[in-house]
Amino acid sequence: MRYTLLLIAIGLLVLTSLDRFAGVNEEASSKEIDSRSVSVLRGTITHVRDGDTFEVDGTPVRISALDCPENSTSSGQKATQFTKQFNGKQAVCELTGAKTYDRVVGYCSIEGKDFARIMVDNKLCKFWRKYDVWNRY
After folding, report:
1. Which of 27, 43, 45, 92 has the fewest CB atoms within 10 Å, counting from its CB?
2. Residue 103, SS3?
3. Is residue 79 classed as helix, strand or coil in its secondary structure?
């Protein structure tokens, strides 16, 4: 009787672990994370500062390799306004380990799409190759 209960408990534990593993594996496979990442920040975009900086769950993130016009210009205001459509969306940011002012620096995807690429494709910003530390662009 003890062995039967022990086997049932082990079986339930294994099934629970497999279910968790499958969920984690599914999430990881939807977006491949660069092995050079110091850490990964996942969360909701809670605030947009400008075209190349937004906050993920309150943490300010400067988008690596992206150069957007300053907010003091009409082009900068246009980039900021465009970026505001992503407020409340889910972001995955691969952090490079660099910091600038009060911001961490990273490459971010929003709902599986590269944010810097979106901004450049919409002609709102340019790639800043000098700061493309992982040579993505």
Report:
1. 27
2. strand
3. helix
**53, 85: one domain:** yes
Same domain, 73 and 111: yes
Tell me the HSE value of 52 on the side-chain side, using a 13 A CA sphere. 26
Contact 89, 121 (CB under 8 A): no
Q: Which two tokens stand for residue 101?
A: 């002012």
**Spans of the chain below 70 pLDDT:** 1-31
Give the pLDDT score at 6.
44
According to DSSP, residue 90 is labeled E
Do 69 and 103 have their domain in common? yes
pTM over 0.85: no
Q: What is the span of the domain harbouring residue 23?
A: 1-30
Instruction: State how many domains the chain has.
Output: 2
Q: Where are the beta strands (DSSP E) in 27-117?
A: 39-50, 53-56, 59-63, 66-67, 90-100, 103-110, 113-114
User: Strand, helix or coil at 125?
Assistant: coil
Half-sphere exposure of 31 (CA within 13 A, CB side): 17
Q: Return the pLDDT at 34.
A: 79
